[in-house]
Amino acid sequence: MSRDRDADAMNDGPRPHRDIFRGMPEEGFDLLSEFRSLVAEFNAALRASLADIDSLAEEQVRQSEYQDTLSDERQHYLDLFDAAPDGYLVTDMVGVIIQANQTAATLLNVAPADLPGKPFTIFVPVQFRATCRSEMRRVEREGVTESWSLILQPRRAAPFPVDITLAPFVDQLDGSRGLRWLVRNASDRVRAENQLKIRVRQQAAVAELGQMALPEANPADVMKRASELIAETMNVDFVGVMERVPGRDELVLKEGVGWGEGVVGSATVPAGTGSHAGFTLLGRKPVIVTNTRMETRFGMSPLHKSHDVASALSAVIMGRHEPIGVLGAGTSWPRRFTNEDVNFLQSVANVIAGAMELRRARDEVREFAVKEERNRLAREMHDSLMQDLAGIGFMLGGLEGSLRKAGADDEIVSTVMAVQEVARRSIREARRSIWNLRSGLFEHECLPDVLKSMIDSTKDRSGLSCSFTSTGAPRPVSPDKETTILRICQEAMGNAIKHASANCVDVCLDFEDSVISLTVSDDGVGFEVDAVSERSGRASFGLTSMRERAELVGGELLLDSRPGAGTKVVLKVPADPAAASESG
Q: 328: pLDDT confidence band, cut at 50, 70 and 90?
């Protein structure tokens, strides 16, 4: 506007007074008029130029603002590009990196400025490069977007899985072609998938063991298969099924995987705080040990130390009333066991416990059936055979008396007396057989009462002086141990009568905290224990039989005898855990 006023001022400024030009020829006035026209045209052109200059300046301002906006938007894009959670790369068609964001550089463990010019395949393990190049060629050839999983090998870092999405592009400015890469860390996804696969295998393992643990299954087979499945599904080096040893403060390794030769079935660990298994038994809950060398809650057993167990996990094998064992798993390398590992191990321990309890219940049912059948046979023998033999003996006695009165020949009387003795002997043997059938089957009597009944019966038959004492608090005894105690007592008393020529036998039954002891002493002729053990014969066989019976129930048999000094037989059997805890 200021320029327009200047132009107007030039055009409309002070005009020469016409009097000045008075007398001027007419041609001068024409020239002046023409000059004025030129000035007006010049002013108009000047105003138009000034307007163009103003418009151009305004356009330049707008262009500058637009460039600033473009720069801001580009920077915003670059910030988003670098801050993206996934890795983005731009390469040429053969995979040479042109541009990469910060996430891609972090994944590859290389500074962003050092990535351009490097082939992407140098970050792929050799065994996967052919697959990567094949996918690149397919994208180039078919112009499609491809996705696949791959293993990346960063610089100076551990390899890890990634998900790749690859797409072609054409630069709109120069028409060049290239590839855009989206690289996503798949470690979490792969880890979750692997965990899911592990859980599926673990559930299948528990289901398989559940099928095995049917009523007819052998618990030893279930333990063995459980050890194998735990090693496979949990990826551990050691698995152990530890069972409580009745009457002892220790557990024995019944079954397992990964232990040295001869260890399974013989190795023991202390109960209580002396071992991982013992501590688990005390707490009755799973126990995780991340680092055995740093463990302070309990001591590590020689079994674990000798096998360099680094990390371990345990679960309780729970019986109907109390723990009966411990199931453990361990590794030779440091490992953090998860809650899912604990749940799986406890589930397997429960299956093992179920198999053991089913076996115990099955044995109890079978034992009960045997008892019932033996009782039935004993009753029938008593009601029929014994009565018939007694009748025969009575008639033979009457016949003997009649013959003597009739003055029969002595040979005939002697024959009848011999037959009568056979009948008496048969009655004694029948009575003994009935007793054998009923021994250990007194459901409503405790062990001391059963022993006393047997001793009284022996006293009545043999005329031997017998005494019986019981010390300690009587408590229930398992059928197999009850039978063992009765049979060994019966055998020891029989030896005193048949071989020792004893006049007196003393029997003592002692209920201790963890052991039940039976002592049978006689005042017979005695013998050399080593000499009898070395020779064959009925007496030697009887001693061997007693020792075998004791060993079958985890007990031991001790003999003390010298010629002329009588014999002492001592049987020690471990008390049942439940009964021991009740007495304590």
A: very high
